[in-house]
């Protein structure tokens, strides 16, 4: 559907508009009494969220390509139906195919409380079938209000049970990583890096990032708070339907190796991700569904 038809069918006057974004990707712009946000239909990818009177909450790489076929670097990519590299076939795209697909607009709504909602969907198609054989309906429900709520739901529309791993791989904007403490992970067990087979327990209440970090916390369901003394703000990240939290910052060396990230990109971002992985894999019975949600808000 072209931009004019999308606006005609799904636009909400003064609140929700479709436009052509960077790389000419179709983008939904939401502005209401609570916040402004933008979402690319490609990848069902939240690009920005700015509550009224606040700075931007999500980090976006100035080098992101915004090109179909490449993932967008920043915002909230969805990883599905596998998180990280594919288990058995390294040629399959890292973090699955969902962030590389043009989704469909299914519904927009003005909620009674004044929040604005967008629902995007993705189903199996012949190209996807070559990567993952199961019939599914994926939905991304994005609600923009005093918090940003992002819900990813996958329903089994086929004839056999399946399982998957996933993540809402949120990139947060920070003044400088040196000013940041992450709360909510003290006492949690984590694997340090992708291939780690042994785990450790975080002794400190606050995680301070001083180098590359790629921690995968298991049995982690508490809220995380990114406390940023440079911006005098706290970003609270709540989640449901997930027992794995990932904290990722590439550090100086890795930042240089990531083509679509500026060399000093690691200084102004940190990912705190709600995931299903390890022993928290989503299993979807016939006609059943699994839901992963995150809610992001700013506190003084
Ligand atoms: O969630 C952390 C992670 O899995 C890291 O290992 C790192 O590779 C990151 O995601 C980004 O992945 P991407 O494929 O978007 O470059």
Notes on the protein architecture:
The protein has a nine-stranded antiparallel beta sheet, with no helix packed on it. The mean pLDDT is 97. The chain is globular, with a radius of gyration of 18 Å. The N and C termini lie far apart (41 Å). With 300 residues, the protein is mostly beta strands. The chain contains three helices and 23 strands. A hairpin with a 5-residue loop joins β1 and β2. The site of 6-O-phosphono-beta-D-tagatofuranose has 11 residues, from β20 and β21. 6-O-phosphono-beta-D-tagatofuranose binds next to β20 and β21.
For this entry, give a set of tags:
300 residues; mainly beta; nine-stranded antiparallel β-sheet; eight-stranded antiparallel β-sheet; 3 helices; 23 strands; globular; binds 6-O-phosphono-beta-D-tagatofuranose
Secondary-structure map:
Blueprint: H1 3-10, E1 16-20, E2 26-31, E3 35-40, E4 45-51, E5 78-79, E6 104-110, E7 116-123, H2 126-129, E8 136-144, E9 148-156, E10 162-164, E11 166-168, E12 171-173, E13 180-183, E14 189-192, E15 199-201, E16 206-207, E17 213-218, E18 224-228, E19 233-240, E20 244-249, H3 251-257, E21 269-276, E22 282-284, E23 289-299
Antiparallel strand pairs: 1-2, 2-3, 3-4, 5-11, 6-7, 7-8, 8-9, 9-23, 10-22, 11-21, 12-21, 13-16, 13-18, 14-15, 14-17, 17-20, 18-19, 19-23, 20-21
Bound molecules: 6-O-phosphono-beta-D-tagatofuranose.
Q: TL;DR?
A:
By secondary structure, the chain is mainly β. It has three helices and 23 strands. It has helices at residues 3-10, 126-129, 251-257; strands at 16-20, 26-31, 35-40, 45-51, 78-79, 104-110, 116-123, 136-144, 148-156, 162-164, 166-168, 171-173, 180-183, 189-192, 199-201, 206-207, 213-218, 224-228, 233-240, 244-249, 269-276, 282-284, 289-299.
């Amino acid at each position: 559907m072209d931009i004019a038809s999308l606006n005609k069918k799904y636009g909400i006057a003064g609140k929700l508009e479709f436009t052509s974004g960077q790389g000419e990707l179709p983008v939904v712009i939401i502005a209401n009494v609570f916040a402004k946000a933008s979402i690319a239909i490609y990848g069902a990818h939240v690009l920005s969220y700015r509550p009224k009177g606040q700075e931007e909450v999500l980090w976006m790489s100035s080098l992101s390509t915004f090109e179909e076929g490449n993932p967008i670097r920043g915002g909230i990519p969805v990883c599905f139906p596998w998180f990280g590299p594919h288990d058995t076939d390294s040629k399959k795209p890292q973090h699955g195919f969902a962030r590389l697909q043009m989704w469909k607009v299914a519904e927009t709504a003005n909620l009674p409380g004044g929040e604005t909602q967008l629902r995007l969907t993705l189903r199996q198609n012949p190209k996807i079938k070559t990567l993952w054989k199961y019939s599914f309906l994926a939905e991304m429900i994005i609600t923009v209000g005093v918090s940003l709520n992002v819900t990813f739901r996958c329903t089994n529309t086929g004839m056999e049970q399946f399982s998957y791993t996933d993540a809402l791989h949120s990139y947060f904007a920070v003044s400088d990583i040196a000013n940041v403490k992450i709360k909510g992970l003290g006492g949690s067990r984590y694997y340090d890096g992708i291939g780690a087979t042994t785990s450790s327990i975080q002794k400190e209440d606050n995680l301070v990032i001083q180098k590359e970090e790629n921690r995968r916390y298991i049995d982690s369901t508490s809220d995380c708070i990114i406390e940023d003394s440079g911006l005098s703000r706290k970003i609270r990240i709540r989640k449901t339907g997930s027992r794995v939290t990932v904290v990722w910052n590439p550090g100086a060396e890795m930042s240089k190796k990531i083509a679509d990230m500026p060399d000093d990109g690691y200084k102004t971002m940190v990912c705190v991700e709600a995931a299903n992985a390890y022993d928290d894999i989503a299993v979807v019975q016939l006609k059943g569904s699994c839901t992963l949600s995150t809610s992001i808000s700013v506190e003084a």
